[in-house]
Amino acid sequence: MADQSIISALVLGLLEGLTEFIPVSSTAHILLAGHFLGFKSPGNTFAVLIQLGAILAILLVYFQRLWSIAKALPTSASARRFVFTILLAFLPAVVIGMLAHGFIKSVLFETPMLICVMLILGGFVLLAVDRMTFKPIYRDVMDFPPGLAFRIGLFQCLAMIPGTSRSGATIVGALLMGTDKRSAAEFSFFLAMPTMIGAFALDLYKNRNALTFDDVAVIGVGFVAAFVAAVLVVRSLLDFVSKRGYAPFAYWRIAVGVLGLAGLLIFG
């Protein structure tokens, strides 16, 4: 049974790393895969805690950029404004996450049918937005004004519904408000850092009494798998979306949602 849990954790960790930063909803993939694998985690904590691997992956890939921004803070108004816009975009998720944490984890995370429906609906939205012709106003995340960042943060809150996708919501919001595809994805990367760290810390605190020593090994395997997979994705995603757009991810969402619904109807 322990070996089965380790294998399941490995699979789920790879899914987390591969899907966290693309607009397909990593949470949906992990919850659906865990459902069909029969993998259980106290309070669905595993799905959030292994995100630490993905967090460390993006911090590693963006280390030089983050270090440059940090060094420039005392002297650069542009660097200070950028940090402020990220924190401002993060603020709505803090408020809603704190207020609705129990409902999200105990109700929404426990409804596989809802997750599948949101995958499909989100896929059609992403496909529609990808086919629209925009004239981008913003092409560099360092130039995003605070008002734009805050509105993108409001879009991110839609991802409180599992299956919506945090990156998908932020990217769609950014595109609709005048960014190009590359900067939309990059801003989603930067916004992911405080958002995922906050979600990790909150979930760890809320479920500190539910975790056991046995959970550490399972979470550790998922963490390492998520880290390795996420590094590969983050290094290649910006170039991919610049050339191919978001349609491939939209089709993937729809396919996974349809297969998930079929599985639920057939197997329960």
TrEMBL record:
Species this chain originates from: Ferirhizobium litorale
GO molecular function: undecaprenyl-diphosphatase activity
Class in the EC hierarchy, top level: hydrolase
Family, similarity comment: Belongs to the UppP family.
Highest taxon listed in the record's lineage: Bacteria
Cellular compartments per GO CC: plasma membrane
Location of this chain's protein in the cell: Cell membrane
Note: Bacitracin is thought to be involved in the inhibition of peptidoglycan synthesis by sequestering undecaprenyl diphosphate, thereby reducing the pool of lipid carrier available.
Membrane topology: Multi-pass membrane protein
Catalytic activity, as annotated: di-trans,octa-cis-undecaprenyl diphosphate + H2O = di-trans,octa-cis-undecaprenyl phosphate + phosphate + H(+)
InterPro entries: UppP
Protein name as it appears in the record: Undecaprenyl-diphosphatase
TM region(s), chain numbering: 43-62, 82-104, 110-129, 187-205, 217-238, 250-267
One Gene Ontology term from the biological process aspect of the record: peptidoglycan biosynthetic process
Enzyme Commission code: 3.6.1.27
Keywords linked to the UniProt accession: Antibiotic resistance, Cell membrane, Cell shape, Cell wall biogenesis/degradation, Hydrolase, Membrane, Peptidoglycan synthesis, Transmembrane, Transmembrane helix
Function of the molecule: Catalyzes the dephosphorylation of undecaprenyl diphosphate (UPP). Confers resistance to bacitracin.
PANTHER family noted in UniProt: UNDECAPRENYL-DIPHOSPHATASE (PTHR30622)
